[in-house]
């Protein structure tokens, strides 16, 4: 998964907002679990895609089919928010003239934007579509939910960068996530400027990707709690 600046800002703030978790609304008993779509259409604040999250921990686990994993990859990759995040990240890189070092001006900006979108696409392609299908791993984030201390939930969220749900329903090491991330970073050497293809830059990209993936789980974990708290404020 690529770096999404707006999402990460919310992710860092989310646990700080919560001193106690309000009880979420109970699931609608009139809607059978089997009728639910395997892919979420939920958006956080009506803007940020939350397609890769299973928000209700009480729902019995049902694995995705291979074609669902490919659909999820495509849905997330071509979403306007993902594209806008790549554009914003390219703008920040252009403003500070940071790597990838394409230079200054309109053409280098579009090169940065293309590289940022390619980073998101290739890592998701390898992790969420190809390897998740081959290795029978689930690319979704399964929320722990309320009832546990905030720090426990934070630790759980951060750990999901290396731990995933297998199609069998058991948790295990995320080979698809880690290897797919590495394959995407390796492929970036084909379109990054030569001066940015070295050990130091590769290490920086690995750290950035791992950090973004880890923090990216915090907002889906705590958003239902934040929304419930905000709804309570509205009614008082």
Commentary on this structure:
The structure is a single chain. A hairpin with a 3-residue loop joins strand 1 (about 45) and strand 2 (about 50). Residues about 1-35 have low confidence and may be disordered. The protein is mainly alpha-helical. The relative contact order is 0.18. It has one domain. The longest helix is centred in the middle third of the chain and has 29 residues, at about 105-135. Helices cover about 55% and strands about 5% of the residues.
Shape type = globular
Number of domains: 1
Order of helices and strands: HEEEHHHEEHEEHHH
Instruction: Tell me how many strands there are.
Output: 7
Largest sheet: 3 strands, antiparallel
State the helicity in percent bands: 40-55%
Number of helices: 8
Overall mean pLDDT score? 83
> How much strand content do the residues show?
5-15%
Distance between the termini: 39 Å
Strand order of the largest sheet: 4-6-7
What would a concise description of this structure say?
With 236 residues, the protein is mostly helical. It has one domain. It contains eight helices and seven strands.
């Amino acid at each position: 998964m690529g770096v999404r600046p707006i999402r990460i800002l919310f992710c860092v703030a989310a646990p700080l907002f919560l001193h106690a978790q309000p009880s979420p609304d109970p699931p609608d008993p009139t809607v059978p679990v089997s009728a639910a779509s395997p892919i979420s259409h939920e958006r956080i604040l009506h803007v940020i895609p939350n397609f890769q999250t299973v928000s209700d921990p009480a729902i019995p686990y049902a694995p995705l089919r291979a074609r669902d994993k490919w659909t999820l990859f495509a849905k997330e990759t071509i979403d306007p928010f993902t594209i806008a995040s790549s554009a914003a990240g390219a703008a920040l890189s252009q403003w500070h003239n940071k790597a990838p070092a394409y230079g200054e001006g309109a053409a280098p900006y579009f090169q940065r934007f293309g590289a940022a979108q390619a980073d998101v696409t290739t890592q998701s392609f390898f992790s969420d579509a190809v390897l998740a299908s081959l290795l029978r791993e689930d690319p979704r984030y399964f929320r722990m939910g309320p009832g546990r201390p905030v720090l426990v939930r934070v630790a759980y969220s951060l750990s999901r960068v290396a731990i995933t749900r297998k199609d069998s329903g058991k948790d295990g090491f995320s080979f698809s996530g880690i290897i797919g991330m590495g394959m995407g970073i390796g492929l970036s050497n084909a379109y990054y400027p030569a001066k940015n293809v070295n050990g130091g830059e590769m290490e920086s990209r690995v750290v950035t990707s791992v950090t973004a993936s880890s923090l990216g789980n915090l907002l889906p974990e705590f958003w239902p709690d934040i929304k419930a708290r905000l709804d309570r404020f509205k009614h008082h």
